[in-house]
Amino acid sequence: MTIMSKNFDVIIIGGGLTGLTAAYTCQQFGFSSVILEKSDNLGGGNQSFEDNQGNIFDNGYHALDFGRSVLTTRFFEKILENNFHKFLLKRGIVIKDYLLEYNSE
What we know:
Elements: E1 10-13, H1 17-28, E2 33-36, E3 48-50, E4 56-58, H2 70-79, E5 91-95, E6 98-102
Parallel strand pairs: 1-2
Antiparallel strand pairs: 3-4, 5-6
């Protein structure tokens, strides 16, 4: 069965943070939904990249931390079906090719 042969209550255009939140909300209210995303990855503008020194940088305005709140923990467990990578989040600011590390508590 292809995805298009199934009926959905809601069609969500875009798999960014808003689209993923919409899918989660639909599921909580018992509506079936499908996300249509043009790229190979979910997350929209909230993508990450790694520099040549192995530092990983997050684009976008939001970071979702597992375990920080009930909502984000449910999101990771139910919507992503526990299919994600856990790692210790390093925070920092880059100024003229220098990484100034900091961790917010």
